[in-house]
Design brief:
Layout lengths: L10 E2 L10 E8 L5 H11 L5 H13 L22 H6 L6 E6 L4 E6 L7 H8 L4 E7 L6 H12 L4 E7 L8 H18 L4 E5 L23 H7 L3 H5 L6 E3 L2 E3 L11 H6 L2 E5 L4 E3 L3 E5 L3 E10 L2 E3 L1 E3 L3 E6 L10 E4 L7 E10 L5 E2 L3 E6 L2 E15 L4 E3 L3 E2 L4 E12 L12 E5 L6 E7 L1
Parallel strand pairs: 1-14, 2-4, 2-5, 5-6, 6-7
Antiparallel strand pairs: 3-4, 8-17, 9-10, 10-16, 11-15, 12-13, 12-17, 13-14, 13-16, 18-24, 18-26, 19-23, 20-21, 20-25, 21-22, 21-24, 25-26
């Protein structure tokens, strides 16, 4: 790994991660029994990311359940057991919760989210895909594109996941047929085109046997593309794409001020004058001397210092967590947004948004909800439901409201202004949550149109 020596100045220069060794997040999606957990287990197994004792435990459980053996006499293991961690998942043979796993290759570190396939757990898929750099969408080669496939493509499109990798799984069960693969590939690319999903890669795989998962398979001589892991190792991560491209945004999480008695030897004057605004950069880069604006007040000022873990930085970039010192005394509180001057729109009290409805409690016009945007929460009133997405035609249809797992468009009136931005341009500051004001449960994931 390349190292960078800090200059001999009081400020330490922040250096972005290099492409080699960057962190890449991806989520699996697909219909029930498409083999998502098995694929994840195969990735972990073949990339040598499983501890010996864990592998032994899974092997014993597989033998106890009579999982079967390979033709050469060796014992096969149920790879899905590596990710299905809940007791109910192991007993039923399904995935219920999002299972996060971590592994690394020589080229990159990964965080993967194994998401459930059942329709009633679509909300978990939304959770897993919301921070993903890519979605690996599994399709059973025998079944082709299903309604849940189209729903997960819609979720990936709405969440603006940069890359979609389609793994046509169980290719071994159709005799490694190129004709079957090409038919599924044509259908999924047509659906992606209808939605406007641009970056789609299609790979034939057998998660059970490992064909084209980590290494390219000799049993698909008609396929000349990379194996699945090769694709994931070479796709650019979201931070690599967006760092420096999107303007600077920092939702204020905490205002830092002197508290309590002073320690011996501390300069009382300097200590009492200290005031900084802490949070995680949602996007962009900020440097000492940059002009910024505080929203929703609209007051402008200049960055005079950037504090990070006891050191002073000359610049910071997303997704670092830092504390900014500003030149002017401005009334700033948790929930405010510090943004690059001249790049932010006017705060608004009216939201036109798309919602992924995640609650069994239906949404109806006139509902009173809470809107959590960044670090701020305000009251909202659903003025209208303008349409629900039809998963066959990918068009909006008139609907009285939204039910569990529906995707639709709404108009919301807010009790206070929010610095909300279009999700298509600002993935982080264009997203929000809809929360039940009565019990605090999350009702929907929202994207500003």
């Amino acid at each position: 790994m390349t190292t960078t020596t800090a200059p001999a100045t009081p400020a330490v220069q922040a250096v972005p991660l290099l492409e080699e060794g960057t962190l890449f997040r991806f989520a699996t999606a697909g219909s029930v029994d498409d083999g998502k957990s098995t694929l994840v287990g195969r990735l972990l197994h073949d990339s040598k990311a499983i501890l010996a004792d864990q592998l032994d435990a899974v092997t014993r459980t597989s033998q106890e359940r009579g999982f079967g053996g390979a033709s050469d006499g060796t014992t096969k293991i149920d790879l899905a057991l590596l990710t299905d961690g809940l007791r109910a998942e192991r007993e039923q043979g399904i995935t219920i919760d999002v299972a996060y796993r971590y592994f690394a290759t020589d080229r990159r570190s990964f965080i993967l989210a194994d998401c459930p396939g059942h329709v009633q757990y679509t909300k978990n898929t939304v959770t897993g895909a919301s921070t993903a750099d890519a979605v690996v969408l599994l399709i059973d080669a025998r079944k082709g594109v299903l309604e849940q496939t189209r729903r997960h493509l819609s979720v990936a499109h709405l969440l603006r996941v940069p890359h979609v990798v389609v793994a046509v799984n169980k290719i071994d069960l159709v005799g490694f047929s190129e004709d079957v693969f090409r038919a599924v590939e044509t259908d999924v690319l047509r659906a992606a085109l209808e939605l406007g999903v641009g970056d789609v890669t299609v790979v034939p795989v057998s998660a059970l046997d490992g064909d084209n998962v980590v290494d390219r398979s000799a049993r698909t001589p008609w396929y000349y593309g990379p194996a699945l892991l090769e694709v994931l190792e070479t796709l650019p991560a979201t931070d690599e794409i967006e760092t420096g491209l999107e303007p600077f945004r920092l939702p204020v999480q905490l205002v830092l001020r002197p508290q309590g008695a002073l320690a011996p030897g501390v300069d009382a004057g300097a200590f009492r004058d200290y005031r900084a605004y802490a949070g995680q950069l949602a996007s962009g880069t900020v440097r000492v001397g940059d002009e910024v604006v505080v929203l929703p007040s609209g007051r402008s000022t200049t960055v005079t210092g950037i504090d990070f873990a006891g050191t002073q930085l000359h610049e910071a970039f997303a997704p670092q967590s830092v504390a900014l010192r500003l030149a002017d005394e401005i009334d700033i509180a948790r929930g405010d947004l510090i943004a690059a001057a001249g790049t932010a729109g006017e705060p608004t009290r009216d939201l036109a948004a798309s919602l992924c409805w995640l609650s069994p409690k239906p949404l109806r016009e006139g509902a009173k909800v809470l809107i959590k945007h960044g670090t701020r929460t305000v009251q909202g009133l659903v003025r209208s439901v303008t349409g629900k997405l039809d998963l066959d035609s990918f068009t909006l249809q008139a609907a009285p409201g939204l039910e569990l797992n529906d995707i639709g468009d709404v108009e919301i009136r807010l009790a206070a202004e929010l610095p909300a931005e279009a999700y298509a341009s600002h993935r982080r500051t264009g997203a929000f949550l809809v929360v039940d004001a009565a019990d605090g449960n999350t009702l929907a994931a929202g994207l500003v149109r």
